[in-house]
Amino acid sequence: MNFIKHLDDVIMQKEAMHRELRRKTKYYRRQIKTTNRLRHNIEIHLDSLSQYLSTRETCPVCHESNELRLLKCRHLCCHNCLEQIHINEEDAKCPLCRERISNLLCFHQYEESDSDSDSDV
Ligand SMILES: [Zn+2]
Ligand SMILES: [Zn+2]
């Protein structure tokens, strides 16, 4: 008798755990969805920001104004010049202040690159 009661308790505990897990999974799925949506919005904003900047600013390195990117250090640099300093490399530095720019503010252009790491900004 006691043994069966014990089994019932164990089963109930397991079911409670499953319910909790399902609840958490649902919660995290929702969180991920929200994060992705935010990220998407940010990318759109950055895109229009760099387009806006491209119409008003020039690259401080080559003085052209096409495809300007805003760096994390808040300096502007054009796509071509960034390519030349190997922007996708870990220790790429801003041509103006030498700050590391592994995290571009406008990064959407570089997403196809073979960055296997899951580290997010
Ligand atoms: Zn340039
Ligand atoms: Zn800089």
Short description:
By secondary structure, this protein is mainly alpha-helical.
Give an overview of the whole structure.
- The chain is mainly α.
- It has one domain (2-110): Herpes Virus-1 (2-Layer Sandwich), CATH 3.30.40.
- The protein is built from 2 helices and 2 strands; from the N terminus they run αββα.
- It has a two-stranded antiparallel ribbon.
- One zinc ion (ZN) binds at residues 59, 61-62, 64, 77-78, 80-81.
Topology summary:
Elements lengths: L1 H55 L11 E3 L5 E3 H6 L37
The chain binds zinc ion (2 copies).
CATH class: Alpha Beta
- The CATH topology: Herpes Virus-1
| Largest beta-sheet characterization | 2 strands, antiparallel
What is the count of β-strands?
2
Second rung of CATH, namely the architecture:
2-Layer Sandwich
Q: Main traits of this protein?
A:
single chain, 121 residues, mainly alpha, Herpes Virus-1, two-stranded antiparallel sheet, 2 helices, 50% helix, elongated, disordered C terminus, binds zinc ion
